[in-house]
Amino acid sequence: MAGYIGSKASVVSSGAERKKTFTITGATTSLTGLNYTVGKVHVFQNGVRLVDGTDYTATNGTTITLTAAAQNGDNVVVISQASFQVADALLTTGGTLTGDLTVGGNILVEKTGNPTITNKTTGAGNNPSYRLQADTNYWDFQGTFSNANDELFFMYNGSPKMGIDSSGKVGIGTNSPNATLTVSQGANNIFAVERTGVSNGSGQFGINIESNSQATVSYDDGAPLVFGTASSPSTHAGFTERMKIDASGRVTKPYQPSFRATSGAANTASAALVFTQKDFDVSNSYSTSTGRFTAPLAGTYLFYITALYSTGGTSPTWKVSWEKNGSFDAVVGEYQSTFNSTSSYHTIFNSTITMSLASGDYVNIKNMTNQGVHISGTQTKFGGYLLG
Question: What angle do CA 157, 125, 182 make, to 5 degrees?
């Protein structure tokens, strides 16, 4: 058999195996003039195979050192096997494959760390992809480099369904997203959220754009639409209701600034009327010590007063006004008379006003006359609320 002692040199292919014979003429430990692959060399002395690492050392590819010197007349044969590769096969340590590859089983990529599969095209402007196919239907996961945005598309049977461009914009139903997320559809129900396992109703919420470009928000018929804040919106933890629209379209805003004050506005000549009690004050914005309502946020507010006004003496002339930030804004009520009265004078007045306030602006009611008046506590109410 080729490669064993006794074979002619012409029998062994130099591409697969090299053989060199040394006839020793004097004692020596060095065999030179070799060309071998480390780890693929065999040494025979007088027909006996020597042990690599014990009987000899072969580490540099060109020389071999014997542990015990060969003597005059010894026959030493060195056989070296060259590296080789089976035709049309890949090495287990890597390699390059050209052309198509069909695999009739599963493919597993496993390694320590972060294994990577790269699908690379040569040249710019091409669109490499991965395909998942069943019969004639297929999904493509395609990198599109043939335009300026370098999108990544999910395509069904060649039609794009969702894409991400190189800036991170996501488009569903469109190839040209113009925002972080763009959803496009030529029919109703563009965006929907559904909760399963609800106790009643469908548990659905939808956002839509009608054919006339009217935007609509819809929710389950018979259930309220509630807006609120939460300490953790993603888990709904700590949710607090801020506004509710019930199934009949009625809107409630439990934290909308509003108040109503009463009682105690007496003997207030040329000064603000101070109502010392509050029936309610949602935002805690009315002061019972100054008589002022201070706007907690900018907006348009409506204020009202209904009062029983009493004064004594022979000159019942009086005037009460609205003030904004300490300055006259409008008249609440006024009475001018030329007759004299010998007893106390009573009248009822009502007034409503809207004001545009910045956050921190304040509103109060002032007695503009120079005599003390009495505003009946149980029959007088001063209040207001934010319109929007």
Answer: 55
Residues of the chain with pLDDT under 70: 1-16, 82-91, 264-268, 308-318, 334-348, 371-378
Contact 290, 364 (CB under 8 A): yes
CA-CA-CA-CA torsion for 24, 27, 33, 39, nearest 10 degrees? 100
Residues 251 and 268 in one domain: no
Same domain as 166, residue 139: yes
Residues 6 or more apart from 256 whose CB is under 8 A from it? 282, 385, 386
In this structure, the answer to whether residues 275 and 378 fall within a common structural domain is: yes
Reported as half-sphere exposure (CB side, CA atoms, 13 A), residue 113 has a value of 3
In whole angstroms, how far apart are CA 305 and each of 224, 302, 385?
A: 34, 11, 12
- Does the residue 342 lie in any domain? yes
Please check whether residues 238 and 281 belong to one and the same domain: no
Name the β-bridge partners of 334: 319
Residue pair 305/380 in contact by the 8 Å Cβ criterion: yes
- Strand pairing class (251-252; 258-262): unpaired
* 216: in domain: no
pLDDT (0 to 100) of residue 369 = 75
Expressed as residue numbers, the domain containing 356 is 258-386
Query: Is 372 contained in some domain?
Result: yes
Residues 6+ apart with CB under 8 A from 200: 222, 223
pTM over 0.85? The answer is: no
**Tell me, what's the pLDDT at 52?**
92
Q: Which two tokens stand for residue 350?
A: 């009502």
| Bridge-based pairing state of the strands 362-367 and 159-164 | unpaired
Number of domains in the chain: 4
Supply 317's token pair: 């002339």
Residue 314 counted as domain residue: yes
- CA–CA separation, 200 and 220 (whole Å): 10
DSSP string for residues in 283-333: T--B-TTT--EE-SSSEEEEEEEEEEEEE-SS---EEEEEEETTEEEEEEE
Identify the residue whose tokens are 């080789």: 84
Is residue 1 within 8 A of residue 7, CB to CB? The reply is yes
Taking only Cα atoms into account, the Rg of the chain, rounded to an integer number of angstroms, comes to 48
